[in-house]
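Now read these lines:
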Amino acid sequence: MNEQFLHYIWKFQYFDKNNLLTEEGEELQIISAGIHNHDAGADFEDAVLKIGSKQKQTKWQGTIEIDTYGFNWESHHHATNEAYENVVLHVVWKNPKEVFRKNGSKVPVLVLENRIDERLWLKYQEFLRNEHKIPCQGYWNEDTISNNNIELVASFEKMMSRTLDERLIRKSQHILSLLERNGYDWEETSYQVLLEHFGFKKNNAPFLQLAKELPFKIIKKHANQISQIEALFYGMAGFLLEENKDKIKLSFENSFDCQSENLNLEQDLLQNQLDKELHYFEGLQKEFRFLSHKYSLQDKEVNLAQWKFLRLRPSNFPTVRIAQVIGLVSQQNHLFSIILNAKTLKEFYEFFKTELPTYWKTHYNFGKLNKQEEDGTFKENSTLGKDAQQNLIINVVIPIRVAHSLYRQKEDVLPKIWLNELKTEKNSVISLYKPLEKINNSAFKIKTAAQSQSLLELYSQYCNPKKCLSCEIGKELLKK
């Protein structure tokens, strides 16, 4: 038995209330179970009870504390905590004890051990112990779905509406936290959120650190000076350290060795190309030394070890993503106003169209050229693709708009409209919920980003941590 399950039982009153008595033998009538409290203090607030016989019945209004065992009152230090002075009932699973408030008054006790249907507990245990990635998956997969599961789909849709709001608020709170740290500078905050999500999950942390150490106000001073912006970004990202120069030479030689059968370059041309590689790198180094001193950026570089390359395609390497960031921010001095004033998704797709710096059109890392085509040219890196642009709209643009609406306490209807216009994301989590589409007589289809965002939140905040008792779907299944 655990307290989370007991909270669920009490909240929905799923126990036998016939001849309900306290441990002292007094009649107990529950008028209101109270409001579930998720903060410090007793578990339920504003509960209303009647205790005693009809002739001597007393009405109590206050809080309810729920523990697995009676001795938890003392072990959790409720007896000395003023936050529990208003407790009118101590509900326990078993092993009751006499308990007292800090002022010495006695707290009535209710034991639930023989009042809960054992099948309810066993089903909940089955949720917790099964090996499915989604605890209730066995109740709605292809082998078990039937015409009787329309209520289940309704529960999913209800829960998805809730989790979409929760996801937008949770992301917004992260942005508002950054905003506070940035002295309520929306421009700087938008820049940090943008860079963070250019990490596309795997490199979010170093990208956010890079944004914090290299403020947007510095970048704006060098608008359209692409070589200086490159020096600032790659320098602060830790890629321009002196020891990397030898690595460039080795990487360049290895790169050409691997492609030697397809290359049409003579040895002297290879040396010429290597000279160009080193000239580019040394030029950035020189520029960065000057700029880092000018803006006091020394010793603030991101640790190079933080950048993750393993299991990424070259086009997703952080070196290429930084180049895409450079192409974007070098052309924009007002990120936040663009995000805030846009009225259509088309404006954002235009916004995210970027021109890569010349070097990075044909390189995926320092000293590493892309594959050579049959005509002798090197394959060019693409700018942000449609899926990447949508990812940034979902994770940057929309959360910033929602955060701003919460900050201003003024509703912004466009974020949800856009989420319903964008196509659904495709990943391993969304595929877990696909069997729901096969339930007979149900029109449930995962088509939009609003739905996929809802399901991602449902999985990360409820299914994966197995918080079934806080989920509408889990509660629906447990009742059956």
Summary: The longest strand covers residues 58-69. The beta strands are 28-32, 35-36, 44-51, 58-69, 87-94, 99-100, 106-107, 109-111, 363-365, 368-369. The two ends are 20 Å apart (CA to CA). The mean pLDDT is 89.
